[in-house]
């Protein structure tokens, strides 16, 4: 928790110091009240009380009460402001940190846990600053100051007060012994509840399709019951403290009165001493109540603090995590090379895994060329593609873009060179234009014309023009108001609109029909000349025209070449091709391809 204090700004520290000063003033004013009450009591017990003196002391009491109230109001306002701005800083810091995480870093925490830490845990810290900080500062000052006032008023009363305080501490320690461990479990239970809720919302269609509502409800009920039971245990344990503390306070008051009555009776006949003892008894009760109130504040701190400490630790775990992928120094010199990608003996395995997902992969693609990757499920195609934008770093070997190791680029520089389209199209809440022009490249501003051109290339222009709002048509979170094909075309348009050096398509045509797929690839080749394309695909028809095709089998290269070459040299590629097309269809496609090539040659030579 203390490590989080470094995120406090100077103005917040100033307000904290001002609050401490005001709390000291508030305690001083609260402890002055019994003194003026003692004067009023003495005046009332004298044979000829001076009314003026009573009014003066009563006025001082009123001023002390008003001053204490004003100080408490200002402290509450400043603490609420500190808590709100501090929680804002924490959320921003956590968001930036999470934004720098790799996929592996996020998996170490889990998405549900990161959501809980950014929301619920920060709220716990905010609540502690708003309420607990005042009590944490005020309670020890009030307790120590009030005890010093008590000790000069009477040994017997001090012993009674000390006994009650000792019992109170024992009571609190016993309760805390059983409750604090439960507080540590609460946040983990909140994480689990978030996991179940998120899973249920994301998979609602599958759940309904399989009539699994009752099963999911049971999972949620189990997680909810565990959290509820822990909260009930802690709440019940804490609720026991209030009546027990009130009983001890009543016992203390009774003890003071009994001792006071005994002392007054003991000095029977000495009216002056009896009057002083009575006044002291009234004042002592006030101070004793202040001491007990101070310890009650500490009890409240014990209720809030354990969860806050757990939350602070969980927040720190995120903030102190160093991203596994670091920025490079940056590449300032332009070597004249553009759009080239080269893998040199690249191998990769996930952290903690024993088996390599990719093993000793080497190839090079030049500017303007199209390279495709194909292989069976789990052969490492997507993993290989994800190494280029450094979603993961290669375990062995080098990856070069424009003849420069990608680890030397700053991540922003590297990503500006790449237009990336993932397997699952990700859209954000906003508009069509917002999603296509999303994350504008530092090289250019994306205009409406650029958006329309990108949509035309991605074969998305027609369906956007049919929408009443055109580019301003709303897109729901996750693109749930669009079909799979529409989402995929918008994701492709987003990559094209950046005008990158390299386009990466990670099985990004799977939701498109064959006709749209063919039109998109034809338009893409025509409109993005000079742009290097890297395509992961399952369909042979999608990659047949690629300049190079890399065949992967169990993470290793099983062949590199054109479609025509691989049919002759790679048994793995031929097996994949024949699983999708018959030998007659393959032969017919070869004839059509050579016919198109011949027509193009004749056209070029006039």
From TrEMBL:
What Gene Ontology molecular function terms does this protein carry? Answer: ABC-type oligopeptide transporter activity; ATP binding; ATP hydrolysis activity
CDD domains tied to this protein: ABC_6TM_Tm287_like
Secreted as UniProt keyword: no
Per UniProt, which keywords does this protein have? Answer: ATP-binding, Cell membrane, Hydrolase, Membrane, Nucleotide-binding, Transmembrane, Transmembrane helix, Transport
Its top-level enzyme class, in one word, is: hydrolase
Tell me which InterPro entries the record gives. Answer: AAA+_ATPase (IPR003593), ABC1_TM_dom (IPR011527), ABC1_TM_sf (IPR036640), ABC_transporter-like_ATP-bd (IPR003439), ABC_transporter-like_CS (IPR017871), P-loop_NTPase (IPR027417), Type_1_exporter (IPR039421)
Where in or outside the cell? Cell membrane
List each copy of the ABC transporter domain by range.
341-579
Query: According to its UniProt record, which protein family does this protein belong to?
Result: Belongs to the ABC transporter superfamily.
**UniProt name for this protein:** ABC-type multidrug/protein/lipid transport system ATPase component
Species of origin reads Haploplasma axanthum (Acholeplasma axanthum)
- What taxonomic lineage is listed for the species of origin? Bacteria, Bacillati, Mycoplasmatota, Mollicutes, Acholeplasmatales
């Amino acid at each position: 928790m203390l490590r989080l204090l470094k995120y406090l700004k100077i103005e917040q520290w100033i307000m904290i110091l001002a609050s401490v000063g005001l709390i000291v003033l508030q305690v001083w004013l609260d402890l002055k009240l019994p003194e003026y009450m003692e004067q009023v009591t003495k005046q009332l017990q004298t044979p000829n009380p001076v009314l003026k003196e009573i009014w003066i002391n009563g006025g001082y009491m009123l001023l002390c009460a008003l001053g204490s109230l004003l100080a408490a109001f200002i402290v509450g306002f400043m603490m609420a402001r500190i808590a709100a701005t501090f929680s804002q800083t924490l959320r921003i810091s956590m968001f930036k940190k999470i934004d720098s995480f790799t996929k592996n870093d996020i998996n170490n925490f889990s998405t549900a846990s990161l959501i809980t830490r950014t929301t619920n845990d920060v709220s716990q810290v905010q609540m502690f600053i708003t309420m607990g900080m005042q009590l944490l500062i005020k309670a020890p000052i009030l307790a120590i100051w009030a005890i010093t006032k008590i000790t000069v008023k009477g040994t017997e009363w001090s012993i009674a007060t000390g006994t009650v305080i000792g019992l109170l501490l024992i009571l609190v320690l016993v309760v805390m012994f059983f409750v604090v461990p439960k507080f540590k479990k609460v946040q983990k239970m909140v994480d689990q509840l978030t996991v179940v809720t998120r899973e249920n919302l994301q998979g609602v269609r599958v759940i309904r399709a399989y009539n699994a509502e009752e099963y999911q409800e049971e999972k949620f009920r189990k997680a909810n019951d565990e959290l509820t039971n822990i909260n009930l245990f802690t709440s019940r344990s804490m609720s026991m403290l209030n009546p027990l503390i009130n009983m001890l306070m009543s016992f203390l008051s009774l003890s003071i009165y009994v001792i006071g009555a005994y002392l007054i009776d003991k000095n029977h006949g000495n009216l002056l001493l009896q009057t002083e003892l009575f006044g002291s008894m009234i004042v002592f009760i006030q101070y004793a109540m202040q001491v007990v109130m101070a310890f009650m504040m500490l009890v409240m701190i014990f209720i809030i603090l354990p969860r806050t400490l757990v939350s602070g630790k969980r927040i720190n775990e995120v903030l102190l995590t160093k991203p596994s992928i670091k920025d490079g120094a940056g590449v300032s010199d332009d070597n004249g090379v553009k759009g080239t990608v080269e893998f040199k003996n690249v191998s990769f395995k996930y952290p903690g895994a024993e088996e390599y997902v990719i093993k000793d992969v080497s190839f090079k693609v030049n500017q303007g060329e199209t390279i495709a990757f194909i292989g069976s499920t789990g052969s490492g195609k997507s993993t290989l593609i994800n190494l280029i934008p450094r979603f993961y770093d290669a375990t062995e070997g080098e990856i070069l873009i424009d003849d420069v190791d990608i680890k030397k680029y700053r991540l922003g520089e590297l990503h500006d060179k790449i237009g990336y389209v993932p397997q699952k199209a990700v859209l954000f809440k906003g508009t069509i234009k917002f999603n296509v022009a999303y994350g504008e490249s530092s090289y250019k501003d994306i205009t409406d014309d650029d958006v329309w051109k990108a949509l035309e290339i991605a074969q998305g222009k027609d369906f956007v023009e049919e929408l009443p709002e055109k580019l301003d048509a709303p897109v729901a979170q996750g693109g749930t108001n669009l079909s799979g094909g529409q989402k995929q075309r918008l994701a492709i348009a987003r990559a094209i609109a950046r005008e990158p050096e390299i386009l990466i398509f990670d099985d990004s045509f799977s939701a498109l029909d064959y006709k749209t797929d063919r039109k998109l690839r034809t338009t893409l080749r025509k409109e993005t000349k000079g742009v290097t394309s890297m395509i992961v695909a399952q369909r042979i028809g999608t990659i047949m025209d690629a300049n190079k095709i890399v065949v992967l089998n169990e993470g290793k290269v099983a062949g590199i070449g054109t479609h025509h070459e691989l049919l002759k040299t790679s048994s793995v590629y031929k097996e994949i091709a024949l699983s999708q097309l018959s030998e007659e269809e393959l032969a017919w496609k070869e004839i059509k391809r050579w016919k198109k090539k011949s027509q193009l040659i004749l056209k070029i030579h006039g």
